[in-house]
Design brief:
The complex is a heterodimer of chains A (209) and B (261). Chain A is built from 7 helices and 5 strands; from the N terminus they run ααββαβββαααα. Chain A is an alpha+beta fold. Chain A folds into 3 domains: 36 residues; 83 residues, Beta-grasp domain (Ubiquitin-like (UB roll), Roll); 77 residues, DNA polymerase, domain 1. Chain B is 32% helix and 25% strand. The chains are: A alpha+beta (209), B alpha+beta (261).
């Protein structure tokens, strides 16, 4: 065998090694990709938000109904409400505790549910937008928003209404300035503040607080 | 958020036990900074020890001082009849933090332990000659804050309460960031028998600090006029997209004048 032949065999052998490995590697990627396509949207959602690890049962009384779910300790209250309890009226807007679309009441106090763990609310009474009225029988504050055109796209409305209810229950004769200051934790992306303030004033009167 | 473990003990001693059983555990107070930090994956503690069940939320008038439990929510301080009567400036400060929902959750102890350079409370602690009581010692405000986000607290030390000295007169004025309501510059001025204290937050690269030149000027003449000749240096002041260090230097003087007026 000449030196040239040895080199040739060596090159062929190396080439084969590379191609086999490469093809295995690519098959692996394809497999993973195909597997990812087969996963249900539920699995993906689970990965995104419902916490993992240190699973345990967390019980909250949401809108008068005890909800017990096996979720990770790192599950946010808003994810427990939306995904475990299936109450999607509470929105996630900014997810950085600024916009207030996720405001709910925990033991009678308004909180941003994207900045609180479900575990921190364990055993508490939680009221969401679904808990204050029904389509047939709206809460007076919801009626006021409807009558005064207090919403445009409606995305911020659940949080606005929950904040407004706490605001007027603390200060029934809130002035326009006090309403504007009191709603500083709620952002309306349509900038429809004028009618929101009008709605809150009307809502306070309707609630007769 | 990375996976983590959550425990909620019923006393400070149980909380200390819990934190010792973790490698890199964190105490969780109101969570208004910690939860967003965890969501951003900027921290990955293996466990959170929620101290909201440790009964650290009483507010009491103790003669010379006003003692406020570390887990007192901002809203409780803002609405407390005792605080409003004894140190109204402190109630006003609490009322101006974040928004209603943040005030419903955020706590005095959490704010002070975090020592955010733009947080409001550290200025009150420093100006009101406060003492920070932890589970094993009492620290004077001057020794407590050691730098931006840095304090003298050990890893397994919990603030239980803070005692504020009662001033003759006090005021807090801040120039809030229009979006976050954090202080771009906040000035707490407190007048005592033995002189005036001026603590500035939101401006220093090393966190909250006292301005001695303004303190001595106001101690001899408690009026905005006495500040006229003082030149605030911009060295060591924060410069960011919201304001340059020169702008902050100007705000320090302006906020102090308004606090005194």
């Amino acid at each position: 065998m000449t030196l040239g032949q040895v080199l040739l065999y060596f090159m062929l052998y190396t080439y084969r090694l590379i191609t086999v490995n490469l093809s295995n590697f690519l098959t692996g990627i394809q497999k993973q990709y195909l597997q990812s396509l087969n996963r249900s949207s539920n699995d993906l959602r689970h990965e995104c938000s419902i916490g993992e690890g240190n699973m345990g049962e967390i019980s909250l009384n949401i809108n008068g109904k005890v909800q017990t779910h096996d979720v990770g300790d790192n599950t946010l209250l808003v994810d427990f409400i939306r995904e475990s309890a299936g109450l999607t009226g509470t929105h996630v807007g900014c997810d950085t505790s600024q916009c207030g679309a996720c405001v709910v009441h925990v033991d009678g106090v308004s909180v941003k549910s994207c900045a609180m763990l479900a575990a921190q609310a364990a055993g508490s009474d939680v009221i969401t937008i679904e808990g204050i009225g029904t389509s047939d029988s709206l809460h007076p504050m919801q009626e006021a928003f409807q009558e005064n055109h207090g919403l445009q796209c409606g995305f911020c409305t659940p949080g606005m209404v929950m904040s407004a209810i706490e605001l007027v229950s603390k200060n029934k004769n809130a002035s326009e300035k006090e309403i504007r200051d009191g709603l500083e934790g709620n952002i309306c992306r349509c900038t429809g503040y004028h009618n929101i303030v009008k709605s809150v004033k009307a809502g306070a009167e309707k609630m007769g607080v | 958020m990375y996976s983590t473990k959550y425990v909620k003990p019923n006393s400070t001693s149980e909380a200390l036990e819990a934190i010792k059983s973790l490698n890199e555990g964190k105490f969780l107070a109101g969570g208004m900074t910690l939860i967003p930090t965890l969501k951003q994956r900027l921290a990955s503690p293996d466990g959170l020890v929620d101290i909201s069940g440790c009964k650290l939320d009483s507010i009491s008038d103790e003669g010379e001082t006003l003692r406020i439990g570390a887990m007192s929510r901002h809203v409780s301080v803002a609405e407390s009849a005792v605080v409003k009567k004894v140190i109204p400036a402190l109630a006003k400060l609490a009322e101006g933090i974040g928004d209603r929902q943040v005030r419903n959750r955020g706590t005095l102890g959490g704010s002070v332990a975090n020592n955010d350079p733009s947080a409001c409370y550290p200025s009150a602690v420093l100006a009101l000659k406060a003492t920070v009581h932890t589970n094993n010692r009492s620290l004077a405000a001057n020794d407590f804050f050691t730098g931006m986000f840095e304090t003298a607290l050990e890893e397994d030390e919990i603030i239980e309460s803070i005692s504020f000295s009662k001033p003759i007169n006090a005021n807090y004025i801040k120039f809030p960031n229009p979006a976050s309501r954090y202080a771009m510059v906040g000035v707490f001025v407190a007048q005592f028998d033995d002189g005036v204290r001026v603590a500035v937050t939101g401006a220093g690269e090393g966190g909250v600090f006292r301005h001695e030149e303004m303190e001595s000027a106001l101690s001899s003449n408690f009026s905005a006029d006495s500040l006229k000749s003082i030149n605030i240096a911009s060295d060591g002041l924060i410069s960011d997209l919201h304001a340059s260090s020169e702008y902050r230097a100007n705000l320090i003087k302006e906020m102090t004048k308004r606090a005194v007026a």
